[in-house]
Amino acid sequence: MGLAAFHRFQDLAREQNVVFYYTGYFSQAVVTAMGDALRQRLNRSDAANVTRRKLFSVFMEMAQNVVHYSADPLTESDDHELRRGALWVGESDGHFYVVCANPIERDKVARMQDKLEPLRTMTNADIKALYKEKLRADGEAGSKGAGLGFLTVARDACEPIEFDFVDDDTSTLFYLKATI
Amino acid sequence: MQNIHLSATAATPEVDFRFDSHQLSLKGESYPENAQSFYGPLLDAVAGYLATLDHVHIAVDVQLAYFNSSSTRLLMSLFELLNDAAVKGNYVTLNWHYDEDDDTILEFGQEIADDYPSLDFHPLALVA
Fold it and tell me: How far is CA B76 from CA A59, A68, A155, B71, B116, in A?
């Protein structure tokens, strides 16, 4: 990419009020550093404490999701994982939003869709009730977390979450967006 | 039983388990890379400690400003162990410290109180 293209990229990011954008390999250290930068940025905004906490929570769930579940790992072990993805925090119409993107295996699409689609139409009270139910259920097989990640994102968002699956040559890109 | 003290890091809370004086405290934030490997040894230590007790008063202080989803279930496991100890005749006070405007943390505390009714639960608002 020439510098002119980079300039256009920067301009677009500025127009869209991007707080930050990261693409590449995610590790816990990268996530922690980004989380710290996000907090400092929020401390200089007039966002309410509740908004700050929810934004940080959504950011953390999405970023750790990339670390744990992206289908493009640089590392093999479950510790000190490094996996590829992208994460974007921006501001629009008086709200913050977070978007993450990472490759997933194609055979996971249907299962993720089944988990995510109902969250779009549920009320906040329904989401909280389902969260409580899952909290008491046994952990899901294959989940490194608690199976509560998407529910936590939906719980902290002020609008229905948005998601998309886009096929490329070898895998499928998963996109998730939450507005806070 | 050896006391456990771990300093806080950006992603893990300060752990101060004074088994000799029956005071357990967690303070800070919790979003470790692998919640199981952080909490697993702590849960084992607490289980070992609780197994030896009879009619003891244990004071637990939890002041977590943030915990991620994978820490959440492990925290529930900790409270389950403590509740079991209370059912067996010990007396467990849980001081649940939360920011006064933080409904998420307060609601999680109330979930614990509902699920583990043998704990003597005290929500304590931290006034900014």
Answer: 23, 22, 19, 9, 10
Please judge whether B37 and A132 are an interchain contact, meaning their C-beta atoms are less than 8 angstroms apart: no
- Chain B: residue nearest A36 by CA? B10
Number of domains in chain B: 1
What domain range includes position B94?
A: 4-126
A3-179, CATH topology level:
Heat Shock Protein 90 (3.30.565)
Q: Edge-to-edge strand order for the sheet containing B91-99?
A: B4-6, B14-18, B23-30, B57-67, B91-99, B120-126
> Which tokens hold the place of A17?
């009020």
Which residues is A172 bridged to in the sheet? A104, A167
User: Looking at residue B43, which CATH number applies to its domain?
Assistant: 3.30.750
Claim: this prediction has a pTM higher than 0.90: yes
Distance from CA of A35 to the nearest CA of B (A): 10
pLDDT in tens, B50-62: 999 999 999 999 9
Write the ipTM.
0.93
d(CA A99, CA A63): 10
Reported confidence tier of residue B93, pLDDT bands at 50, 70, 90 = very high
B72/A35 Cβ within 8 A: no
Name the CA radius of gyration of chain B, rounded.
Answer: 14
* Residue B57, token pair as written in the block: 């008063």
